[in-house]
Every structure is written in structure tokens, then in C-alpha cells.
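Hi support team,

I'm opening this ticket because the web form for multi-chain structure prediction keeps timing out on my end. I have pasted the exact lines I submitted so you can reproduce it. The total is 300 residues across two entries, so I didn't expect it to be a heavy job. Is there a limit I'm missing, or should I split the entries? Thanks in advance, R.K.
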Amino acid sequence: MKSAVIVFPGSNCDRDMAAALHKIGGSAPAMVWHGDSALPDGLDLITLPGGFSYGDYLRSGAMAAQSPIMREVVKAAERGVKVLGVCNGFQILTEAGLLPGALMRNAGLKFICRAVTLKVENTETIYTCQYQAGQEVVFPVAHHDGNYFADDETLDRIEGNGQVVFRYADNPNGSRRDIAGVINEKGNVLGMMPHPERLIEQEQGGTDGRAMFESVLASLK
Amino acid sequence: MKARVYVTLKNGVLDPQGKAIEGALHGLGFSTVEEVRQGKFIELEVAETDAEKAKAQIDEMCRKLLANTVIENYRIELA
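Hello R.K., no limit was hit. The queue was backed up. Here is the completed structure from your submission:
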């Protein structure tokens, strides 16, 4: 699998993402700087990692979404290249208009750093086909601005389309409809607040995240 | 030309930070406070002398970056 991790100033989960991609994909991903004007050729998967790009100044992910490399990421997404955004990456994807809605300050106002139970709502996506329908997984979250918001019309539409991929079993941040992760209509761009890349090996406390990367790998065969 | 941009949350978007401020004001004894909503204030200095052109440029800045129109409204004031 040929993959890339986009690194913004302030990203801090890029190395975890790279480790997960390397261990499961079999080759080290390209680490691509936000200021670059071109992506490597032939990418199967582009990832936007967690962290505090631009210090979360103005709004989380707002300035990162306007980085030079993001123009290329948007073009790649429009061509159907798979793009996975985790945490700050999810924020960047909504700010870039690749996913609907917005991520706001957690309803409880605190930074939340703990394991949460998620229900896998849609196992027909290329990211979740290796999970069982209705499976519950436990992923860690670490965020201050994970409160998913979209208006009623958008929410009804994305629910109807099966675009809600992960839902919190016990909503930690006030996200509307308990939404933890969404996919675009075309099915190639996924954004989620929890961190699957932190659950690849038993030593990390669980392996619930493996199936996501294995699903992508399987879709390439 | 100087400009002021006010970015505020749309109605219907919950504002827990505003609520926290409301609680703190109540704690200080300001019991008459019924609602607080928090927004952003951005000051710009733009090298443009034509007010119409400046307003159009700043409007584009708001739509592209300064405000997230999914959840925020904006208002521009030219000095």
C-alpha cells in the first residue's frame, strides 16, 4: 500500500499514524510537509493525523485546511484517492469542505483523554468492511474540540445515506446524534475523532484499530 | 483601510463557553444576566482605498477563512 501522512506545523500524531501504516501496510508512508505543492505519485491512501496544527488558532484545522498541500489533497480526493482524517485530521477535512459539518468545543468544556466505546454503524465502507455489523470497539480519544455539529437537514441526509460510520455508545463531547466519524458520499474520504492508529498492537492496550487499516489494504487487492 | 470583523455563532448552535461565562457572571453576583454568547473580533488593515473593493475582499476572506459558515455568521465594519 502506497500511503502518505501529511504533516502540518503542530501535528503530533504523525509518527503514530506512520507506524500503523508501516506495520500493517508493509512499507513506510511518505511524510509530506504541508508547504509542499505536490503529492507523491500513485498514492493509495492519504492520511491527515491528529495534533494541534497551527496551534488550533482561529479554529482547529482552519488554517491547515488552506495549506498548499491541501489543494492537492482535495484534487486527489475528487479523483477518488482514499483520504483518512483522524482527530485534527477530521477537523481539517470539515474545514476543507471534504466532509459535511463542523467540529466544535466539547460540550463539557474539558479536554477528554480516555477510551470510548464506539458502535461501527456502517461496515460497507472500504475502511470498515473487516468489522462485523453493529460491532462495538474501544478507541482512545484525546481532544478538546470533538463536538460534531451539522444542521438537522444535513444530519438527516447523511444518516439516510449511511454516511455515519462510527457512533459513540456513551457520548463524551456532545456530538449531535452521537456521531464520532463520517464518510463522504463517494465513500473515499473518512473523518473520525477517535484514534484507530493507537490500537494496532496488544502492547497499546488493544488491537481494535487494526481492522480499519486491514480493510483499506484488502480493498486494494 | 481599517476593518473590523465580528464572527458570531449562528442561532441554534450551542455555546458551552458562553454558558460558562454566564455561570461565572452569576457567581460574581450579576444575577440579571440571562444569556451570554461568545464570538470573535478580528481587526484588519488592508492596503485598499476603495471601500467597495475592500469590503468585497474582506467578505471573501471571511467566507474562505475567518468564519466557518457552517456554524458562524460574520459582520464587517469599515473604519
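A quick check on our side: Helices of chain B lie at 16-27, 51-66. Let us know if the file doesn't open in your viewer.
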